[in-house]
Protein 1
Amino acid sequence: MVRPPFDNSYARLPDRFFARVVPTPVPAPRLIRVNAPLAADLGLDPEWLAGEEGVQVLAGNRVLETSEPIATAYAGHQFGNFVPQLGDGRAILLGELVDRRGIRRDVQLKGAGRTPYSRGGDGRAAVGPVLREYLVSETMHALGIPTTRALAAVTTGDQVRRDTMLPGAVLARVASSHIRVGTFQFFASRGDVEGVRTLADHVIARHYPDAAQAERPYRALLESVIRAQAELIAQWLLVGFIHGVMNTDNSSVAGETIDYGPCAFMDEYDPQAVFSSIDSYGRYAYSNQPAIAEWNLVRLAECLLPLLADDTKAGAAEANEALDLFAPAFERAYQAGLRRKLGLLTERDGDIELAQGLLLAMATNMADFTNTFRRLSEDDPSVRSLFTDPAAFDEWAARWRQRLEEEQSDPAARRAAMLAANPAFIPRNHRVEAVIRAAVDRDDFAPFEELLAVLSRPFDSQPGFEHYQDPPAAHERVHATFCGT
Ligand code: AMP
Ligand code: MG
C-alpha cells in the first residue's frame, strides 16, 4: 500500500496559527466503519484503512511519515459571548490530501486526545456523538448539501467520563478546510493584522481563487463567504435541519456544515424548534438560523476591516456593502428551493406566498416536514392526514393544483423533479438515539450500519425500509439532544 501522501499547507503557516501535537494513543482500537467511497476519493485504499495499520492511524496510535499533526488556534463567539482562545481541544489535523478532483481536503481526528487548547476537557469523544456526526454529516452529503464528511470511526477501548462513563471513539473527519469565522477572530482580537492577512490569503488561495483576480481581493473574499453561508443556511431550512450551536467557531469559511453537536432534523414543522439542551433561549432555533449566520458574518467582516480599506470608516462602508448581499443571496436560494420542493418549474408572482401558505398550515397543524413534502411529491392522498385538520391541507392543495395547471408541466417530469428535491429519509432523532443506545448498551453496531445504508440514498424509495420514514411515537420523542462532548 502506498501510504497517504499528506501535504500540509496549514502547517506551513506561521507558528502562532497552531500547535504541533501528537494524538494520544488509545488502548484497544477497534474499527466501527470505513467510508470506502470517500477513502477512494482521497486516494486511500479502503482495505488498508480498515486493516491493522489503518486502524492504528485512525485511532491516533500511529502517525504516518508525511503527516504533520497540529491543533489549530481559533477564538469564537459562543452564544454571543466572545472567547478569545478556543482552538482544537480534541481534534487533531493529520494533514491534507488532494483528492481525485484536485481538491485539497483536511483529514482530522476528532477525539484524539488533549492539546494545548483543551482547557478543562479530556480531548476525547464518546461513541454516541461520533455516530451522530457520522450519520448526520453523511446524510447531509447525500442530500447534496455542503458538509464535512465522515471518513471512518473507531472505538478506543477506553471509557470517557460524561454524565456517566461511556465508550470512547474517534471520528476521522474530512473537510475542505476547518477554517472558521473564529479563526479570523483569533488574530483580529489580538490586533494581529498580519495574521488576519496571512489567513485571508490562505483562504483565498484554497477556497476562493477567483477572489485573487478581483480588483479588491479581500472584499471579494468576504462576499464569497457571505454567499456560501447564505446558500448553506437556505439548504438547511429546506430540509428541516437545525444545527444547534451556530457559534462563530462552528461557522466554516468554506461554507460547509461543520461541528455537528446537538443538531437535529425536525419531525413536525415548527419554526421555533430548538433541540440543543444548551440553547435555553432559542438563539439557534430553526428559523433564527439565517439571522444568526448573518450575525456571524458581521463578526467576520469586523475582522477583515483593516484589509478592506486604509481607514476604519471606509472599511466599514465596504463591509456593509458586502453584508448587504446576505439577505438577497439567502432569499434567492431559499425561494428557488421552495419552488423545487413544490414542483414549480417556472417562476411566478405569488409562488412564495403559496409556499408560505403550506408552511403556515403545516406549523398550525403539526404536520411532519419531511413526510408532507414527500407525499406531496408522490401524489399520495394520505398527505392530508398528516395535518391535525386535514381541511387546512385541502384548501391549500386546491391553490397548488391550480398553480400547477397554469404551468402545464408534464406531470411525470414534475413528479420526478419533486422526488429529487424532497427526501424520503432523514436521520430522525429517535432513530439516531436508538442506534446510539444499541452501540452503547449492547456494543451492537448493526442498527448504525442499517440506518446509514438507508440514509445514503435519501431520495430513493426503499421498499422494506419504510418504517424509517415514520415520525417518532409519543414515547420515542427526543426533546433535547445533548452536546455530549
Ligand atoms: P464544540 O462545542 O465541540 O464546537 O467545542 C467548543 C470548544 O470546546 C472547542 O474549542 C473544542 O475543541 C473544545 N472541546 C469540546 N469538547 C472537548 C473535550 N472533550 N476536550 C477538550 N476540548 C473540548
Ligand atoms: Mg466546534
Protein 2
Amino acid sequence: MFEQVTVAPPDPILGLTERFNADPSPDKINLSVGVYKDAEGKTPILHAVKEAEKILLKEETSKGYKPMTGDPAYGRCVREYLFGESHPYLDDPRAVTAHTPGGTGALRVAGDYLAKVHNAPTLHLSDPTWANHKGVFTAAELPLDSYPYFDKTTNTVDFAKMIEAIGQIPAGDVVLLHGCCHNPTGADLSNEQWQQVGQLLKERGILPLVDFAYQGFAEGVEEDAQGLRTLANICDELIVCSSFSKNFGLYNERVGAITIVAANAKQQAAVTSQLKLCIRTNYSNPPAHGAAIVQTVFNDADLRHRWHDELTAMRNRINSTRQLLVDKLAEHNVSGDYSFITAQRGMFSFSGLTPEHVKTLIDEHAVYIVNSGRINVAGITEKNVDRLCQAIKAVVG
Ligand code: LMR
C-alpha cells in the first residue's frame, strides 16, 4: 500500500522551521514562521493569558464537548473585536460566528462551505499572498485566481491595478482581502481604498472574504479593524476568518473564528446549518481552552487592560526592530535603500531578497527566510541583528 507513496514537498513556511530545528549551526536564525519573539528571542506566554488560565483552572467544571460552532459568548466576543463594541452585528441574527481551530481552520471551513454550498465559486487571492492560502483552498477544491496587489518598484499597494482587476471579476465570485498587516508584504489599504474596494465589490455582487490574523499588530486593535468595519458598513454579506494566535500569543491553542454575515436572519439560519455540517464532518467541534482564555481576558477589565498593554509592547518592539534592521543594514553597507521596511506594517517585512538570495542565506548562513523574501521582523534581536546583516551583505553585496 505505502510503497508507491512519493515524498511531498515541505511546507514553504513550516517546513523551514523543521529544517531550522534540525540545523546544528549554533548561531542559526529563524525569520520564517510568523511567531512573535521577545528581545531574548523567546515566544512568551502573555501575563494576561497566564492569569486567565489560573482562573480557568479553579473555575472550569467540565471538559464536555462544545457546540459545533463553539460557545455563543465566544462568538459575540469575536464580533466585538471585529466590528466594535456598539456594532449592530454583535446581536444581529444575520451574523454568526463559529469558533475554529485557528485562523487556518477558519479558512478551511470557509473553503469547504463555499465549495459545497455555493458550488465552488472562483476565489481571487492577492498576488502575492500567504503561502498557505493556495494549499488550503485547493484542498477545499475551490478554483483559484489572483488579482495584482503589490508594486515591487515602490514597495506599496498597486491600487490602480488591483481595482482594475477586481472590476473584471464576475458576480458570485469571492475576493480574499487581508484585514491588516498584509501577509507577506506588510502593505495595507488606506481607509479610502477600503471604501472604494467595498463599493466595487457590492456593485459587482462579489463576496468579500477577509483574512484577519494580525489585529493589533499595525496600529492598534481598534485602528486595525477600520478597513474591515468600512467594508462591513458597505457590504450586506461577508465572511471574516480571524485568529487570536498572534495577538494573544495563543499559537498552539488553535483559537480562531469564522464569522459570516448574511443579508437577513432567514438566510443566516440556513448558512449556519450548512456551516455546522462542514464543521461536523471535519473536526466535529472546536478545542475549548484557547477560546476560554480569550473570553476570560475579555470579561475581566484588569486582564483586558493588561493584555492591551502587552499587545502594545509587542507591536512597539516590532516597530523599533524595523528601524534597527534598517540602521544596521546601512551600518553594514548593504547595497540598496531599505528605508521602506519602516513603512511596512505587522510582523513581516517583504525585504526584496530574491529566491536565490534566500537559498544562499539558508544553505550557507543558516538564516531561514521564506522564499518570497518575507522576513519575520519579530525574530530579529539585538543579539542576532549584526550576524543577520553580515549574511545579507554576503549575498546581496
Ligand atoms: C505565517 O505566515 O508564518 C503564519 O501565518 C504562520 C503559518 O501558519 O504559516
